[in-house]
TrEMBL record:
One of its GO terms (cellular component) is nucleus. This is Methyltransferase-like protein 4 isoform X1. One of its GO terms (molecular function) is site-specific DNA-methyltransferase (adenine-specific) activity. One of its GO terms (biological process) is methylation. Belongs to the MT-A70-like family. The gene is METTL4. Pfam families: MT-A70 (PF05063). Residues 69-88 are annotated as: Disordered. It comes from the Eukaryota.
Length: 426
């Protein structure tokens, strides 16, 4: 379970607990396949050190390149005259003014809504005030793996196979995957499914990845989504985290980005069931938020119903950035809506009407220190959709039990090096 506590304001989540539960221990079953039998003897836990965030991020002029965009730096008096570059203090542009106006509207809601959830986390011992415990993890915090996974290369190679086999793209279950263990490309031309009740291991390009129970994935980019479309699956929940274009992404070069026009080409109407719940992660840039609400979701026939906020805190219960920081905000936005098909009877009642979406909910959690790793929404969203809902995550970088995931880095955080097995712990 990922929800530690719930209030009228929202939820306090424990993402680390969710990841532990995603790869449960299962007893060995009678089988002649030694490779399968060995996998049943131990469970996998996501490395806890990725969630040991004890202190807020306090950007300084010497370390934060992004700060240049928020305030004018002081002139270095030690530089030779010829190298001085004076910056003029300029008025805020319209985007910055819109951001300040939006923050003024929601900052009180975020502060008040978070406090009760944080206090409950402190009472339960999940959160604890600054203490010596941080010393245990401050010495060596692991970073993201190097590009040894070669997911981008796999994705590019698989694109050519998609085009060759576009008329024959069934879903592969794990029993079939065993027979294709020597053919990475043949595997990647299909949706791959672990239909068992335990974690399975898959090997691609010499690297091992964990597949949670009842999960499935497709590794491809936006030009090769045909296997998803040809599977004839319609989803009741679609969560997407598009790679929005911004300056920090360009500087870091962590991943590519898509233009607004490219994002609009995602075939949500073809993937969505009637009254599908669509959840879109948005950056704090007002241009992106307005695009999602006024252009993107209407383009997909999705009615905007609510805005929620993910509030990021430390293990001590502090915001990861000051709430009124000009550098970065300690929250991100989610826009929620439902697919509304045109009908002859606009006033008809639908099954979704029994699951009204509340507005301005707060999701509070200690974020994973891996870049852009969002908290799980499965447990939160289940009360707003029918039972046994089919769920899809787009632009995913990890897998969830019971969900289908798609993206060009869909297995990134499933690499076995991000996990510790119970066999190792013992």
């Amino acid at each position: 379970m990922s929800v530690l506590c719930e209030s009228a304001a929202g939820w306090l989540l424990d993402q680390a607990s969710f990841l532990r539960a995603a790869h449960p221990h299962s007893p060995a079953k009678a089988t002649d396949d030694k490779r399968v039998k060995q996998q049943h003897f131990h469970a996998y836990s996501f490395r806890a050190e990725f969630f040991q965030l004890f202190q807020p991020h306090l950007p300084s002029l010497s370390t934060a390149a992004d700060l240049e965009e928020a305030e004018a730096p002081q002139i270095d008096q030690q530089r030779p005259k010829a190298k001085k570059r004076k910056r003029r203090y300029t008025a805020l542009n319209q985007g910055e003014l819109d951001a300040l106006e939006y923050h003024a509207k929601i900052s009180g809601l975020i502060k008040d809504g978070s406090m009760s959830l944080i206090q409950e986390g402190l009472n339960k011992g999940f959160l604890h005030p600054l203490s010596g415990k941080k010393e245990n993890y401050s010495k060596s915090v692991p970073t993201e793996l190097n590009d040894c996974c070669r997911l981008a290369e796999l994705c590019e190679m698989s694109k050519h196979l998609h085009s060759l086999n576009e008329h024959e793209l069934p879903t592969l279950v794990m029993e079939e995957v065993k027979r294709l263990s020597n053919s990475d490309l043949e595997l990647l031309s299909h949706i791959t499914e672990n239909n068992t009740d335990w974690t399975m291991i898959i090997t691609l390009m010499g690297q091992k990845y964990l597949l949670p129970p009842k999960s499935s994935f497709l590794l491809s980019d936006i030009s090769c989504m045909q296997p998803l479309l040809q599977s004839n699956r319609k989803y009741d929940v679609i969560v997407l985290d598009p790679p929005w274009q911004n300056k920090s992404v360009k500087r870091s070069k962590r991943y590519g980005h898509l233009s607004s026009w490219q994002i609009k080409q995602i075939p949500i109407p073809e993937l969505a069931a009637a009254d599908c719940l669509v959840v879109t992660w948005v950056t704090n840039r007002q241009k992106h938020l307005q695009f999602v609400k006024n252009d993107l979701l209407p383009h997909w026939s999705v009615e905007v119903l609510a805005e929620w906020h993910w509030v990021k805190i430390t293990r001590a219960g502090e915001f990861v950035f000051p709430l009124d920081s000009l550098h970065k905000k300690p929250y991100e936005v989610l826009v929620l809506g439902r697919v509304r098909r045109s009908t002859d009877s606009p006033s008809r009642e639908t099954e979704a009407d029994a699951f009204p979406l509340p507005n301005h909910k707060i999701i509070v959690s200690v974020p994973c220190m891996l870049h852009s790793y969002k908290p799980p929404l499965a447990e939160i969203l289940q009360k707003y959709v029918k039972s046994e809902a089919k769920c899809l995550e787009l632009f995913a970088r990890s897998l969830q039990p019971g969900w289908t995931s798609w993206g060009n880095e869909v297995l990134k955080f499933q690499h076995i090096d991000y996990f510790i097995s119970s066999e190792t712990e013992s």
